[in-house]
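Okay, can you check this protein?
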Amino acid sequence: MKFISQFLFASFMFLSACSRDNNNVVPTNALTSVISQSRWIVSNFRKEGNDQLFLFGGYRFTFGSNTTVTAERNNGAAAQGTWNSSALNGKSILFLDFASTPDFERLNGNWETVELNSGFIRLQMGTDGSNLLSFEVNP
């Protein structure tokens, strides 16, 4: 009986220590490696629940290894900012700063990486799902 009690106690302690957070953790070095290897287009952008994808139609984003990010259109329009990736509370964060560049300043801030592969990056700001940003590799 003593063995069963010890086993149940040990099992309870083990299960209590397990995380209930089912979010995928994306290593910061993976984000840095993937984002700087390709040119990207914005495939989804929602700010405070409002679809604002139209602001970035036709722009191709290049994330340089020197932490500069450039958004360019075929017509010559361009915006430049800075980017960085880091870890915050165990999450991989993409920091974007386009200063006060019209429309692009809406991208400024710390975006948590939710999904990442060589062709797609999904980010969110906050936890309520109202601020979403997704990039896809430029075809």
User: Anything to note?
Assistant: The longest strand covers residues 78-88.
